[in-house]
Structure formats: C-alpha cells, structure tokens
Amino acid sequence: MTTELSPIDWARRPIQRYADFSGRAPRAEYWWYFLATIIVYIVVMIVESMVGLDGTVGPYGPLSLILMLGLLVPGLAVTVRRLHDTNRSGWWILVAVIPYFILGVLAGGAIASGSMGAMAGVGLFGLVAMAGAIVLLVFMVLPGTKGDNRFGADPYGGVSSTAAAV
Prior knowledge:
Layout: H1 7-16, H2 27-51, H3 62-85, H4 94-113, H5 116-141, H6 161-164
C-alpha cells in the first residue's frame, strides 16, 4: 500500500517518475519532494558559498543552476500530477507562471522607461502573480478526490480519509 512509504520514498518518487505528467500525486508525494528540494538547495548554496562559487552565474552558483535545471521537469511533473489528484487540469499551473513572465517583461520596460504608468503596471501584475501563486498553493494543500477521477486511480488505493490525510 502506498501510504506505508517513508518520507524519503515519497520525496524520491518524482525523480523516479521524472517526466511523467500523467496520473495523480498525493499530498505526501508533493510536499515531501518540495521539502527535500528546499533542503538540497540550501545545502548546495552553503557549499557554493564556502567554496566561493556563489553568484558566478548571475545570481546563482554553477551547482545550484545545474540543480535547478535538473529538478525543473520533475517539479513541474509532480505539480501537474498533484493538480490531477484534486481533479484539476495541469494547465492550472499557468495561473501562477504566466503573470511572472508578463511581470518580467513589464519590469524590464518600466525600468528602461522610468515612467510611473509602467511602474503601476508592474505593481498590478505583481499582485496578479501573487494571487495566482496563492491559488496554486491552495490547490496543492487541498486533499485529493477520493476514489478514481478522470486522471486515474486514487493514489492511496481507496483507503479511508484518515489515512489519506497523511
């Protein structure tokens, strides 16, 4: 039964299913992977700082940049599968991503022009981006749908809601 996995097993599953965007990911898989990723980033950043490599590739060190690029696909995949577990399309991820791209374009233009109108646009899209991130966070925290849904079988195998709340 999948509920008997250790936190390390849950954290490794997205790496094992590297680019698998189909199916469902329970909260345990998503959040243990998220926590493990943060811990690994912190360790890598400390090592880069101690060796003097921090900030050598823009704001990143080479190791953290390689780590970020290596974990981009499994991070997106587990997020999409987590959305599937709540019976939502993976396209919901764009609610949090698109405003940041627009914000980057606006911020570049606002800095170049220095106009107050452009700065106001940056502020507005900053709020939209934050709202999108909050919506996505709420979706990640919500429990998955019990039983099968349109994206696949229940990752907990139809166990009771108390065991599914892990």
